[in-house]
Design a protein that fits this description.
By secondary structure, the chain is an alpha+beta fold. The protein has 27 helices and 22 strands. The two termini are 52 Å apart.
């Protein structure tokens, strides 16, 4: 850090400053000379005399760090005199211009990507598109190792021994499902217990009042039950819902219902007074995959909001459906102990406020085991009539399938090898279909399928790199935007040699972004960049946040996916990620946010202009939850999240010796801000926390699961903050406005992240000209999403590959190409 300060001063003395700018010299006198002089020489740096600017090349990393520290206000350190903003701007502009000049002077280098093993998502998608079966066999593979923030980095995707056996099993299961249909599964049952809801001694739950409003479906009320269940195959499944609670005499019958993915499957009527142990059951067809199951009471009345314009509620509002403490069973007590909730001994009114006991899912029953017509069409290109295949059909099937699996035309010799497997199987008495199955399984365990192979091409004259082939470029495009193999049209254009025509490439990119398969870019890239897919595994404290369940978790993630997906498919502004006047909500999430006018389980675009929480990802509960602790918010985690993902200025790791905050004291002995101020008194913490903490405190109006609040415990929330550069804000909306002024840094950081993801490798110094060019294109293109994508796919490293082996000298390639060893 001391050396960073010295670099700043070296820059100041090397700039062509006139005597009319004494602020630079004052900066040295007040902030540096007391320590960095000939006598003390702190950090082995003497700044008593002006130095010349003669070590720029070798000290490039230090200069870059200096710019980052200056621009984020971390330097000079807290408590030291600061130069005027004009001087700071002059220093950073000069340095950045020098960086750019130096980078452009270096010989271009496209870099090399190692053979890229398909990760789990890419494997699943390729099987789906090749065979027409969406059975996700790679979900059983070992987890992919991530690097540089993503799980598609070629160098990190090693091949553990266990994966070899997984590949053989997955190939057999996938091919046989496509050719002969799914295996018959034995029915199995899965039990889900409802989370415990506790009322305080006054019989009122300590939760937001607006969550008790009338909801015709009941899905957004506190007492609905939500779980995500994976159905292994298409088929009929049974559902058994066990009710709980007590219905007062003379109140109307209750109407429990089951919903799947927000669609009501069946409504029941129960007229019993004591609902505890009452059971409702049904069977229905469900498709394979993950589905959100919800159980709720229809027409629940808890007071209509003034804005309600829907159907009339029940005429007689029922009393709370509760189990008094005196009726707690041993099972109830054990459940309460499991959740860590104490039953008060001095009160007879502590209550379990559950409306549902459990949900059981059984099946599959009456499962279809026939092969999918889509799968048969994809495989049998010469038509399928069992036992009536003509000579030559096997070769046609193999050639087409292998060409699609290998993402390039297969050679005649390759096709013949796999076709021979069919012939051999027939000679051994197997059917034609069994022979085809053997050949397809062999194709799916070939390195040509499991790895994205790229061939070394001879370099062009005077260059160290060569273009990738048309088919390799098609694969780079499809795995970048879709996380799967190229489709028929993309392969056709590649076969015609048209992908390097700028107009053709642009047309294909825009087509691919509009395709539903571009949702893979949202999940694969944005989900890891913004980390919102971690919402699937976070576990907020159930006692502090009883409203958080699988239904809310699902809604939080869906909001962010739909929001970013709309930017992708509608070519929206990248700046909407920082702040927007819209988002996507259903009734459950809208009620959680305190936003009126949203009814029903379907998500829709909602205008949030003028609301306190506003829009942009910093207002999304998914982001706010994953950047919090399970029991409380964390200005440090949230500030760090902003620095890393939005400002492109990740802070260093904290010192190991710094103790954490005492969670028990937060909101009790003082505000979180007051405790953080004590924490910052540690000199080892002050520099980074002076930047992180104000950013994080700007989001304190959002609690640990993203709900809006004005109080934290018994203290009022304070979202004010002042950044090290002097800019201040009073609320989350003002913080977002400040962040939006840093659009160029945001665009550059996003460019670096997206280029890393697109290439499947970490970025190097020689990639900087490409990064600068893409960032410039984004800025001149009004920050539209398509400009970022087109900038990446037209860049030197995306369309080219370093030829064979190239020596690297001083960060750049030399033109001497090592001769390839004879084979």
């Amino acid at each position: 850090m001391i050396r960073v300060i010295s670099v700043m001063i070296v820059v100041a003395f090397s700039l062509p400053l006139s005597a009319g700018r004494p602020e630079v010299f004052a900066f040295v006198d007040k902030s540096c000379a007391a320590c960095h002089n000939a006598k003390l020489k702190s950090g082995d740096v003497d700044l008593a005399s002006p130095r010349t600017f003669n070590t720029f090349d070798e000290d490039r990393p230090i200069w870059e760090k200096a710019v980052e520290k200056i621009k984020t206000g971390q330097m000079p350190p807290p408590g030291m005199p600061r130069p005027e903003a004009s001087t700071t701007r002059q220093i950073t502009l000069w340095l950045e211009a020098e960086f750019d000049r130096q980078d452009r002077a270096v010989e271009p280098d496209a870099g090399r990507v190692a053979a890229h093993r398909l990760n789990r998502a890419e494997y699943n998608n390729a099987i789906r598109d090749l065979l027409g079966v969406d059975i996700r066999p790679a979900d059983n593979f070992p987890a992919d190792t991530a690097a540089f923030g993503f799980d598609n980095i070629s160098d990190a995707l090693n091949l553990p021994p266990a994966l070899l056996e997984n590949y053989v099993d997955a190939a057999e299961r996938s091919v046989r499902t496509a050719l002969f249909g799914p295996e018959k599964r034995k029915p199995a049952a899965v039990h889900y217990s409802a989370p415990v809801r506790i009322n305080d001694t006054r019989g009122r739950s300590s939760l937001p009042k607006d969550l008790f409003n009338y909801d015709q479906t009941g899905l957004s009320t506190l007492h609905s039950m939500h779980v995500v269940h994976r159905f292994p195959v298409d088929g009929e499944y049974s559902f058994r819902i066990v009710l709980n609670g007590h219905r007062p005499n003379q109140s109307e019958p209750v109407h429990p219902a089951l919903f799947i993915d927000g669609k009501m499957i069946q409504e029941f009527e129960v007229d019993a007074t004591d609902l505890e142990g009452q059971i409702v059951e049904l069977r229905t067809q469900v498709t394979a995959g993950d589905h959100l199951l919800s159980a709720s009471y229809l027409h629940t009345y808890h007071g209509l909001p003034p804005s309600y314009k829907g159907p009339e509620p029940s005429k007689r509002p029922p009393e709370p459906l509760i189990s008094a403490r005196g009726k707690l069973s041993e099972k109830d007590i054990e459940t309460l102990r499991k959740y860590g909730t104490r039953i008060k001994t001095d009160s007879i009114e502590t209550r379990v406020d559950n409306r549902f006991e459990s949900l059981d899912v059984g099946g599959p029953f009456t499962q279809s085991t026939a092969a999918s017509p889509l799968s048969l069409r994809k495989i049998y290109v010469c038509g399928h009539a069992p036992g009536k295949h003509v000579d030559g059909c096997a070769r046609k099937v193999i050639t087409r399938f292998a060409s699609r699996a290998f993402r390039r035309p297969v050679k005649a010799q390759e096709a013949a090898q796999y076709a021979n497997l069919v012939t051999l199987a027939r000679k051994q008495g197997d059917s034609f279909e069994e022979g085809i199955a053997t050949a397809l399984q062999a194709i799916l365990v070939s390195p040509n399928f499991l790895y994205r192979m790229e061939t070394d091409q001879p370099p062009q004259a005077g260059r160290s790199w060569a273009p990738v082939t048309q088919y390799e470029l098609a694969s780079r495009l499809s795995y970048f935007l879709w996380s799967t193999m190229p489709d028929e049209e993309l392969l056709r254009v590649a076969g015609q040699g048209g992908l390097r025509n700028p107009a053709v490439l642009t047309k294909q990119v825009r087509r691919m972004l509009r395709d539903p398969k571009s949702s893979a870019l949202v999940e694969g890239f944005a989900g890891q960049w913004l980390q919102f897919r971690n919402i699937d595994v976070v576990k907020p404290d159930q006692e502090r946040f009883p409203v958080f369940d699988d239904g809310l978790r699902h809604a939080m993630r869906r909001e962010t996916e739909l929001f970013i997906g709309s930017i992708v498919r509608e070519d929206g502004s990248l700046l909407d990620l920082l702040d927007a006047n819209y988002t996507f909500l259903n009734e459950r999430l809208a009620r959680f946010y305190g936003i009126d006018g949203v009814s029903g389980p379907e998500f829709r675009r909602v205008d949030v202009a003028g609301t306190a929480r506003g829009g942009g990802v910093l207002a999304h509960a998914s982001v706010l939850t994953i950047s919090s602790y399970s029991t409380r918010t964390s200005p440090v985690l949230r500030g760090k999240w902003i620095l890393e993902n939005l400002l492109n200025a990740p802070p260093p790791a904290p010192p190991a010796s710094v103790p954490p905050l005492d969670d028990a004291k937060v909101g009790q002995s003082g505000t979180l801000r007051q405790q953080m101020e004590e924490h910052r008194k540690n000199p080892a913490c002050a520099s980074c926390h002076s930047v992180m903490d104000p950013l994080g405190f700007g989001l304190e109006n959002f609690n640990a699961i993203g709900a809006w609040r004005t109080e934290d415990g018994k203290f009022p929330v304070d979202s004010k903050g002042t950044l090290p550069d002097g800019r201040s804000f009073q609320s989350p909306s003002e913080l977002k406005a400040i962040l939006k002024t840093g659009r160029d840094a945001f665009a550059r950081g996003l460019t670096e992240k997206l280029l890393t993801y697109a290439l499947g490798r970490g970025l190097e110094r020689y990639d900087r000209p490409a990064i600068a060019g893409i960032t410039d294109k984004v800025g001149s293109g009004d920050y539209r999403f398509s400009q970022l994508i087109l900038g990446v796919v037209n860049s030197l490293p995306f369309q080219n590959r370093r030829a064979r082996e190239v020596s690297l000298v001083a960060g750049g390639p030399v033109t001497a190409i090592m001769k390839e060893n004879s084979k």
